[in-house]
Amino acid sequence: MHSGVWLRLMTLTALTVLMAAQRPEVFTLMVHHGLILTALNSSVSLACELSPLFNAEPLEVRWYRSGDFDKPALLYKDHKIQEAPVDPRYKGRVSLTGGLERGNVSLTLERVTLADGGEYVCRVSNAQWYEKASVFLTVKVLGGTPVVSVAEARGGGGRVNVTCSSEGWSPYPTLTWRNKEGTEIRNGREVLNTPDPQGLVRISSWMLSSPSDTDWLSCTVSLSEEEKKESRILPRAPTEGFVRVSTLKKMANGNDKTESTERPEECGTQTAKETTTQRECVPKEWGEVKRFKVDITLDPKPGHPYLQVSPNRKKVYSTTSKEPNVSTAPHVLSEDKFSFGQIYWEVVVRNGGIFNSFLGEKQSWYVGVATDTATLTTGVVPLTPQNGFWVFTFKKEKGYCVSDDPQMPVSGNESPSVSADILTTLGVFLDCDRQMLSFYDAESKVHIYSLFIVVSSNTFFAVFSPGLRDTCPLTVK
Question: Which of 127, 136, 206, 423 is most buried when burial is the number of CB atoms within 10 A of its CB?
Fold first, then answer.
């Protein structure tokens, strides 16, 4: 045996014998002071060590929630983990991993749930003495994208009341208002935190602002600099009521036709002058909408057997390339919903390079929005305005279209990448206040198409469908 290995072995043996021989009758426990933060579904170690260090194998080690001494999460005695009495919520999820022979009685908790948060007591005892110490576990949950709205302030005076709210956070988050220069706004704001029955927090804030057509405000809710969500809004007084829409519509045969109707009408790349019976249809430049970019996450349960969402909730793809027994493309919604202000997000609709050659060329996809009143139960309804969906779609045999019945082809006059069928990243801009949806080529930074959404509901979800018989994913950037 190598002399170095032999020396280390002898040292470890001597240390073990020494620790056993010097087993004290009185000891204390060393634990982590302050909150221990961990994410949902992760594993976490709750540290607890004897002081002085000595072999803890002959001792009793009990980990329990505060107030639940008789129903411990883990009980070690008589040189083994006991099956009873223990809290059934922790069965198969806890273990002692520090090394009892080294005086480390730390608890490892796996597959952390929201209910696991709180105070844990580490209690170690022998026949003559016991000691206990508490550690505090907090489960981190990233909440929803902030919803920002504007209302006319009481008393007028040319000011508006701007409100920001976000749900589903743990622990208590921080809410920050900033102007377009990035300067934090502290004066005149109010912030309220409200816990819900599940232990998550809803945070809301409001403040008075002077209306502006150019100076936007941002509301950021965060747990840390890396864990945050942001929304932006132009603090303008909202327009009341709904109107009938009359737009200049480019027909498939190339002719122009003016229609007046209550169903959703496309405004395309045309400009319709606003009158008493028309809404202004002037799409923003890509550079203007880019600043409203938000972090979109997908619902982890798409509700359809042919779809799967990635663990980071950024990709959705079909699990079969065979002919599914459905008549239309299954879809998944965003986890967040939007009711006020402007929102922009991007979707990679075509992989390039080695990924494209490995996965194959994408055959179809659908990207857009759905209202909260859409028919969502089956997951395979036609993605048309009649069912509450407004989408931009690609099918290899048909090219690009906007959802309608029948579908309206998009020629891509503004965007060469669309006409050449090589669109890679689609930008989506939703103006909730105007109920206007616009699509952009995010690579060439040009506008593709815009349409109005005329519905009584003003709550929207982002909607994604990777198409049929196509295992290439859609990816939210």
Answer: 423
Note the CATH architecture for domain 147-233: Sandwich (2.60)
- The SS3 call for residue 115 is helix
Chain segment 354-394, per-residue pLDDT in tens? 334 344 567 789 999 998 877 554 456 788 887 888 999 98
- Taking the CB of residue 449, how many other CB atoms lie within 10 A of it? 25
Nearest alpha-carbon partner for 387 in 325, 445, 329, 340: 329
Say if domain 245-476 classifies as CATH 2.60.120.920.
Answer: yes
CATH 2.60.120.920 range(s) for the chain read 245-476
- Residue range(s) in the chain whose domain bears CATH number 2.60.40.10: 26-140, 147-233
Asked if residue 338 lies in contact with residue 430, where contact means CB atoms within 8 angstroms, the answer is: yes
Give the alpha-carbon dihedral of 442, 446, 449, 453, to 10 degrees.
70
Measured in degrees and rounded to the nearest 5, phi and psi for residue 419 equal -65, -25
CATH code of domain 26-140? 2.60.40.10
Burial-class residue 92 by CB neighbours within 10 Å (0-12, 13-18, 19+).
exposed
> What is the DSSP secondary structure assignment for residue 237, as one 8-state letter?
P
